[in-house]
Amino acid sequence: xxxxxxxxxxxxxxxxxxxxxxxxxxxxxxxxxVPDVQQALTEMxxxxxxxxxxxxxxxxxxxxxxxxxxxxxxxAHLVRIGAPADRSGRTARHETDIAAPFTNDAIxxxxxxxxxxxx
Length: 119
Description:
- The protein is of the alpha/beta class.
- It has one domain (3-112): Response regulator (Rossmann fold, 3-Layer(aba) Sandwich).
- The protein contains 4 helices and 5 strands, in the order βαβαβαββα.
- The chain has a 5-stranded parallel sheet with strand order 2-1-3-4-5, with helices on both faces.
- α1 packs across α4 (104-112) and α2 (37-45) crosses α3 (65-74).
- The two termini are 14 Å apart.
């Protein structure tokens, strides 16, 4: 089964770049691109099974409780790109922060170093 990944990014060029890296990194992947956290919530609440959510730009700072709950309920991995290093507040159970601007290596490293509880 293909991995399902939501990218929350309003810049189409950045979104396409990240989508391309994911397609080159994963053998089977379905990428769903949405412009904001609200659209990500809509996708996840529709019953779509999601394995990973990437938050980039201003979305990376989101502490939206509904989003974090859905990410955790799906057992998904949340990746924040460019979140402030001193960010505090609620996080998802499985969360990774990477620096912005992201690189191919930084994205690919997420998949080379899976979560310890991933099967």
